[in-house]
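User: Can you help me understand a structure? I only have the sequence.
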Amino acid sequence: MMVTLDGTIVAVANPAIQKDLGASLADVQWITNGYLLALAVSLITAGKLGDRFGHRQTFLIGIAGFAVSSAAIGLSTGVELVIGFRVAQGLFGALLMPAALGLLRATFPAEKLNMAIGIWGMVIGASTAAGPIVGGLLVEHVNWQSVFFINVPVGIIALAFGLFILLDHRAENAPRSFDVPGILLLSGAMFSLIWALIKAAEWGWGDWKTLFFLAASVILFVLFAVWETKVSEPLIPLGMFRSVPLSAGTVLMVLMAFAFMGGLFFVTFYLQNVHGMSPVDSGLHLLPLTGMMIIGSPLAGAAITKVGPRVPLVAGMVATAVACFGMARLTPDTATLTMSIWFALLGLGLAPVMVGATEVIVGNAPLELSGVAGGLQQAAMQVGGSLGTAVLGAVMAGTVSDSFGDNWIKAQLPPLTPEQLDLAEKGVQVGIAPVPEGVPAEVAQAITTVAHDTFVSGMSTAFTVAGVVAVLAAVVACFTKRGDNAAAGAGAARI
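Assistant: Let's start by predicting it. Here is the structure, written out as C-alpha cells:
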C-alpha cells in the first residue's frame, strides 16, 4: 500500500512540483524515471536477498528505508534532491516489493494463493484510489511536500505490524551463496537499457549515445546469460525461462506497464492543465479507474482460481486496449461521464492482469526462487513503465514539435522567435498554454485553444500506440497458464 500510494500521489503532485521548483518536463519525468530506474536495476537482486536471508528481514528493512527516504524528499528544496531521494526510495522499494510476494507465496497453499494475490491487488487498487484524492487534498490545502511525509506514519504502522505478525518462511533448499558477477552484469545491463530509454527523448533515438547504451545493454545481457550457465548458484537460473507461461507472463507485465504507466503519465496533465481541474478534482476523476481495480482484483483472483489465468488475462488486455483507443478520442471538451467510462474500463482490464500475471510468474517458479520470481515480475513492470514513459513521451514531444508551430501560424497569432517557440513547445508538452501576461482576452483564448488542441493531439497519438501494445499483450496472454509449482506454496519451513 505504501509504495502504490506514493506512486499515485506523486502523479497528482507532479504539476505542483513542476511549478514550485521550476522543473522542466524532463525533470518531472526524472522524478518518475529515477524511481523506476532504481527499482528496475535492483529488484531481482533484492529478490535474491530475500531468498538468501529471508523475506521478512528484507521486507522490514524496505519499509523503514522507504519511509525515511520519503521524509527526505519532503524536506528537499531543489528538484535535484527530490530526484536523488526518489532513487533511494526506489532502492528500498526494491527490497519491499518482491519480499511481499515471496511472503504470500510461502504462506498460502495453491488453492488459496490466487485469492491472496487478489486481495494483494485489491490493496494496490485501494491505495491507488486513495492516492489521487489524498494527494489532491494535501497538494491543494497543504503543499506537495506533505504527499511524501504521509509515508512516515504509514511506514511506522507497517513496521510495527510486520515486526509482530510476519513469520520468516525459508525454503529448505534456499540459496546459500551470492552471484556477485551476475549481479554486476545484470545491474549494468538493466541500467544501460533504462538509461537509454530515458535519455532517448533528449538525445534522439538515432544519436550515438542512445545507440551506445542500447548496444551496451545487449552485450551485458549476453554476458550475463553466458555467466549464469557457468556458476553453481546463479542469480537467475536460466532454466526458469524454459517455462513458456513464465516467459509469457514476464513479457505480458512489460507490455501491460508500457500501456498503463506510459499513457497515465499524461492523464493528470490533461485533467489539471487542459480541463483546469484542481488536484482534488483530478483525483476524483481518476476514481473510476482505481475503484474498478479495487472491485476487479479479488473477483479476478476468484475467476483465475476457477478457470485458470489465460481467459481472464486475455479479456483484461482486450479491455485495456479498448480503453486506450477510447482515451485516444478525448478532446479538450470531453464530458466527465465519457472520461469516467474509459477510466473505469481501463481499471477493470488491468485488475486481472495484475493478479494473473503475478500468479503465472511466481507460481511457475520454484519456491526457493520465489523472491527472484517476485523481483522478475516487478522488474518487468518497471521496465515496461519506463519504456512506456520514454516512448510515449517521445511521441508527445514529436507531435508537439511537428504541429504546434503550424497550428500557431494557422491561428494567425503573432510570430514567435525560435527561442520562444522552443519554450512554448515545452509547456504545451504538459498541456500548459503559453499565454503572456497582459494580452487581450481574444488572443489569450486563441493561444489556449492552439496549445490544448496540440497537446490533446499528442496524447491521442500516445494512447493509440498504447492501445496497439495492449493488443499485442492480449496475444501474449494466450501463452499463459496456471503455475506448475504453485502447489509448493505452503511447504516452506518456518523459522
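Now, to help you interpret it: The CA atoms of residues 135 and 147 lie 6 Å apart. The longest strand covers residues 169-170. Let me know which part you'd like to focus on.
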